[in-house]
Amino acid sequence: MRIAIDYTAAVNQTAGIGRFVRSLVGAVAEIDTTNSYLLVHARPAPERVPRYPKAPNFAHRQLRFSERTMTVLWQRLRFPIAAEWLTGPVDLFHSPDFVLPPLRQARGVLTVHDLAFLLFPECADDKLRAYLESAVPRSVQRADFIVTDSENTKNDVVCLLGARPERVEVVPGGVDPAFHPETDPERLRQLREHLGVGETPFILFVGVIEPRKNLNRLMDAFAIFKARRRLPHKLVLVGRRGWLWEGIVSHAESSPVAGDILFAGYVPEEQLSALYTAADVFVFPSLYEGFGLPPLEAMACGTPVLASKAASLPEVVGDAGLLVDPHEPEQMAAALELLVLDEGLRADLRRKGQERAASFTWQAAATKLLAVYRRVAAH
Hints:
The protein is α/β, with parallel strands linked by helices and about 375 residues long.
């Protein structure tokens, strides 16, 4: 098969979907030496240097247009310029980031990571939400096949967008082998120094700073936790600022434990293992996630995990972490207290977490994706 993949997210997004696409495509390159691939992407942002798989059957093509220009042409103005005009003849075109361009003859595969913009519209930027509400349902109806990251998102796509269940397949994410407990004391010391925590124990969140991550309730839970036990822990929030971040920062500033809440900004991927290892507890309290790589990565590094029981997160965490109602700060605070103080529970979750993380591999995900490609091409 001749397969084109829209690689724009992998080039322009450092975290989230960008990491997901880079890892999945990289794993496909490792296991498939038969089909030919073209990675096509919009002009990168000025600070971004594209990274491509090094495989003889993988080529890449950078377009002259920016991502915004392509979005306006294809999705807002709906110019009928087929993607094959940019890729040349291909059998299959995979768009791994929510929207599908016009296609002439190629079969179209679309990945929908989540439907947060429909289920939690108050958590998204108004313009982005309006765009996604128009473009994603249209792309789902046009696609020959749809890929989701979880059974929960598959169910959402079927129930909310009317996709036929038989043309939706779950391809979950994986954990890169680079995620393991950091044993170098110097790297851990430097990481702690960078965060500004010194030797103080801390509770960690990693993700975009935006309302859907439910950080205001996490900070409320942290204040309850601190008031009950007067433990020395800090709360470290790692990630770039997304939309509607201002209310989260102001909530932190008004917290009774504001001095113990740290916004650490973006931490490079190569430092994440040390970051997870250094934390006492990793907490992921999201209202909705299509998958959720950070809890798995924290587990792989031997860190006990507390997560929301909403959406796909029970599929990811299973019984290897504690799951709580994301709307209940009191419940979250009690779980934090348990995870910090119960060494037997911490040891049990450490073991279970590493076992569970090992069951999610990018090679397994790539194998499932290749099966989708073959299935679509056969029809």
